[in-house]
Design goal:
Elements (H helix, E strand, L loop, with lengths): L2 E7 L3 H12 L1 H8 L2 E8 L14 E2 L2 H6 L5 E4 L6 H11 L3 E4 L2 H18 L3 E2 L10 H8 L5 E7 L2 H13 L3 H10 L8 H4 L2 H14 L10 E2 L7 H9 L2 E11 L4 E11 L11 E8 L3 E8 L3 H19 L29 E11 L4 H11 L4 E6 L8 E8 L2 E2 H12 L4 E10 L6
Parallel strand pairs: 1-2, 1-4, 2-3, 4-5, 5-6, 8-10, 10-17
Antiparallel strand pairs: 7-9, 7-11, 9-10, 11-12, 13-15, 13-16, 13-17, 14-15
Amino acid sequence: MTNIKIGICGLGTVGSGVFNVMQRNLADINARASNQLSISLVGCRRDNANCDLSSTSITRDIFDVAKSSDVDIVVELIGGTTVAYDLVMTAIEQGKHVVTANKALIAEHGMEIFARAEAQGVMVGYEASVAGGIPIIKALREGLSANRVKWLAGIINGTTNFILSEMDSKGRQFSDVLVEAQEKGYAEADPTFDVEGIDASHKLAILASIAFAMPVSTEDLYTDGITQLDPQDVAYARELGYAIKHLGIARQTTEGIELRVHPTLVPEVSLIAGVNDVLNAVMVNADAVGTTLFYGPGAGAEPTASAVIADVVDIARSMSSLSETWVPALGRDLNSLESQNVLPIEEVETSFYMRFSALDEPGVLSNITKIMGDSGISIEAIIQREQPAGEDYVNVIILTSVTKEKCLNEAVSHIEQLNTVRGSVSFIRVEHLDQM
C-alpha cells in the first residue's frame, strides 16, 4: 500500500467537513482506496474551531499546499474563480492531482483545466461541484456510460427549493422565506447566485458537458430565477395538480440541445414534485436504462465532504496498481468532444401556464382564444376565477399544449395590448418529464 498525502486548501464549511470525515473514517477510507491516505498539510487563513488541528501541519499561504513536495492530491475548497483558478493550475503544473467542489470554476474554466491536467498526466475530480453528496457526475461518467442520454432535469439548488417548498406548503411570501433561509444558513447574505439561478446554471453546464460530450459555457444557457414568482401562481398551480420547482433542464432534440434553468410546473404526482426543503434531485433519461432518479442532500459540510473524499479515493486507487480504473474528467477523451447547436429559448418547445387579469364581459375570452389560435397555440384548459366583490376584472388561467416559446411570446404581446386585459401576462413553463 502506498502512502498518499492530501493537502486541503480552505477550512470553511466544506473544508472542515472533509477534514473531520477523513479523521473519523480514515480506516474505512484507506481500505476502500487500497492505500494509506493522510492529511499532510492544510492551507487556511485561520483555524476552524470545529477541527482538531493539533497534529496537522498548517500554512496560511494556500499556494504552499500546491507546491509542497509532501502533497500528492490538492483539495481546493476556497471557492471563486480567480485565486482558485491560479491555485488549481499551479497544482497541476507541479504534477499534483486535484479535487474541487467549485462549480463556478469548473463551469467557466473546466475545459482548460482538464486539458492541462491531461497534458501533465494528472487527474481532476469534481463530483462535489454538483448536487453535494449525490454521486450524479460519477453516474453520468461511469454508471450510465453504455447509454445515450436523451435528457436530464434536476433540482440542483437547495436554497431555491427550500423557498419554493415553503411558498407552496404554507402560502408564504418569497421575501419572508428568503430571510428565514438566510437565518438558517441556506442562503448567503447576498443570495443573488441562488435566487437568480446562476448557481444552478453553473451546475447544469457541468452536467450537460458530460451527458452530451460537448464543451458548455454558461453563456449558452437560458437562466431565470425565482424572485419574480407570484405566490398566487404557486397556489393556482397546486389547485391544478402541479408543483412549481426551479429546474435545470438539458435535452437533446433533432434541432439541437436545450439548456435552460427556470421555474417549472411539474405534475404533483411526479417523483421530482415530492423533493422538498433543501434536498436535490436529478432525473436522467437514457436510451438503455430509461429514467433514473438521483436524490439526496445537495449541500452541507459532510454530504459535500462525502463527494470530495470519494474523488480522493478514486484518484488514490488510480495512483497504485489499480490505475486501470482511471476515468477521464468528462468520461471520455477531450478530443472527442464536439460543439453542438444550443437552441435559443425562443425555439424551445414546451407547454405553458398563463395568468392574466381580464374584464369580466362577454366576448373577452373569445378574443383571447382567437389570438392564441392565430399564434398556433392550442389550449388544453382555461379557467376563469370567481370575480372578487367590487371588481370588474377576474383572473384567467390558461394551460396550453406544447408550443414554441416564440409563439407564446407573440400571443402574450397581443393579449397585453387588449384594452380588456389589465397589466401583464404571467407565464411559467410546464414539463411532464415522463413524456419528454
